[in-house]
């Protein structure tokens, strides 16, 4: 009797809970297959042209105890996604959204017009040749959140890598057709830390699962652009670049080398900070992420920049329209856009920002994964002064890898696209005339680079490009 009443109560309770769940939170499901359907983007405000591919966005819980959820946006390849690799894109900062930069300004299928409302197609979108997954990482960035606010104060490279691995494993449960698919990681700037570190935890994870079974991730390689690598060589390269590009005085150049030597990029001493401020003043009002293109004029609120200009390694202004970032800020703050992207109103940031200040537990690890057999490419836009080509070259030089293909120019449409050198286990490519966000400034060259990377071929020489 008592038992019967009990089970009846449980049933009623279950019905109530179910009703409540379906009414109140109909965009969350514990069933990955159902969740995938819920994540499908059906309509995107400002998208007034046809697209031939599916896209999805939503959250993946990476830690149940704390309630950490990472937000993703996935654009399938526009043709035959089943035959194309899966590629994860990560922006830097630390603290900058991969949706704000990677998706909306760089490699994504659509960018945002100056009205902050309308989208236009990007003819050089990387989803022409791959399935692209944009991830806002770590928690606190973009639409990613944690229910434990102390998480956001303690973001560090290690936890970021672990959370991203959890993200991938759970995401693959939701999108099982991508399990075992060739997988690559790409990114820029501070992602020079995130990308190799995530690669490393994936390689370890695969070893732990004996590289087989449903849980292994078929990581084939990674590629980073204008990547923060190690502080010593990064600094050395920045100062040298600023001086040789004629942007700072001899005196400042000497003092920078003296006072900022060996210091972490994101946490520097006050003496180093002071001389960095002086260098900043000497630069004048240029866009340090792209020294030859116009800066976005005045009224951009400088205070919204997460760090001092010299230290902000994830964010940029651009070439033809130097103010794209403002357009993104407008667009992604539109409630109807957030709704279309399945952003949970209870966890949406009060104001969505392209970058936010992150307390970063700085870690200087840039592990070599060459021995794991990954394809590793480092590229560099050669007009960036924040992580310049000199820094990348010093960092590569420090690895002391034997050269396998000598330095040479590479071509696109008969013009020099940049320079390249092959090393045992690593390929260097520069992109001529590109700033920090290479695909923003040189979208066609960036797509050519991405194509060569995925194919594992060297970049076109002059003869090859003349018939195409
Ligand atoms: C965060 O907390 C809310 C309210 O308890 C809950 O609905 C949500 O699922 C939690 N998020 C995560 C990622 O656990
Ligand atoms: C939040 O995280 C911190 C640090 O991990 C932990 O000490 C604290 O207990 C957590 N708070 C809650 C409410 O879970
Ligand atoms: C700059 O922005 C402020 C606040 O948004 C505004 O009041 C001011 O008129 C703007 N100035 C210019 C020159 O556009």
Automatic annotation (TrEMBL):
Its EC number is 3.4.16.-. Residues 1-24 form the signal peptide. Gene3D superfamilies: 3.40.50.11320, 6.10.250.940, alpha/beta hydrolase. Its main location: secreted. InterPro entries: AB_hydrolase_fold, Peptidase_S10, Ser_caboxypep_his_AS, Ser_caboxypep_ser_AS. Belongs to the peptidase S10 family. This is Carboxypeptidase. It comes from Quillaja saponaria.
């Amino acid at each position: 009797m008592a038992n019967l009443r009990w089970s009846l109560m449980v049933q009623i309770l279950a019905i109530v809970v179910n009703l409540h769940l379906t009414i109140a939170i109909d965009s969350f499901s514990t069933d990955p297959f159902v969740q995938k359907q819920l994540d499908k983007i059906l309509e995107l405000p400002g998208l007034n042209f046809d697209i031939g591919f599916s896209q999805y966005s939503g959250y993946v819980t990476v830690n149940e105890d704390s309630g950490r959820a990472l937000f993703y946006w996935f654009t399938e390849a526009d043709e035959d996604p089943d035959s194309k690799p899966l590629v994860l894109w990560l922006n830097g900062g630390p603290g900058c959204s991969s949706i704000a930069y990677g998706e909306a300004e760089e490699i994504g299928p659509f960018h945002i017009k100056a009205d902050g409302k309308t989208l236009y197609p990007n003819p050089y979108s990387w989803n022409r040749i791959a399935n692209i997954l944009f991830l806002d990482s770590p928690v606190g960035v973009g639409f990613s959140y944690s229910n434990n606010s102390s998480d956001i104060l303690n973001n560090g490279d290690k936890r970021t890598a672990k959370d991203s691995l959890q993200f991938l494993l759970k995401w693959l449960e939701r999108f099982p057709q991508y399990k075992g698919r060739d997988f690559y990681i790409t990114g820029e700037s501070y992602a020079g830390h995130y990308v190799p570190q995530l690669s490393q935890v994936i390689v370890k994870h695969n070893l732990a699962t004996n590289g087989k079974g449903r849980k292994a991730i078929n990581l084939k390689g990674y590629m980073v652009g204008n990547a923060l690598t190690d502080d010593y060589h990064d600094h050395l390269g920045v100062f040298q670049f600023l001086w040789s590009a004629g942007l700072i005085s001899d005196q400042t150049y000497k003092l920078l080398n003296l006072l900022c030597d060996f210091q972490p990029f994101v946490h520097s001493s006050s003496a180093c900070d002071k001389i960095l401020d002086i260098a900043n003043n000497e630069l004048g009002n240029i866009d340090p992420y792209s020294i030859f293109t116009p800066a976005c004029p005045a009224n951009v609120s400088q205070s919204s920049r997460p760090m001092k200009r010299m230290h902000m390694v994830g964010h940029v202004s651009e070439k033809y329209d130097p103010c794209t970032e403002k357009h993104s800020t407008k667009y992604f703050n539109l409630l109807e856009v957030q709704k279309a992207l399945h952003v949970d109103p209870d966890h949406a940031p009060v104001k969505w920002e392209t970058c936010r200040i992150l307390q970063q537990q700085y870690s200087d690890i840039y592990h070599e994964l060459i021995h794991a057999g990954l394809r590793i490419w480092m590229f560099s836009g050669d007009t960036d002064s924040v992580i310049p080509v000199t820094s990348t070259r010093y960092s590569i030089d420090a690895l002391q890898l034997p050269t396998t293909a000598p330095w040479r120019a590479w071509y696109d449409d008969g013009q020099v696209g940049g320079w390249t050198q092959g090393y045992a286990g690593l390929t260097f490519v520069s992109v001529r005339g590109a700033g920090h966000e290479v695909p923003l400034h040189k979208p066609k060259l960036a797509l050519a680079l991405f194509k060569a990377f995925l194919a594992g071929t060297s970049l076109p020489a002059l003869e090859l490009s003349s018939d195409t």
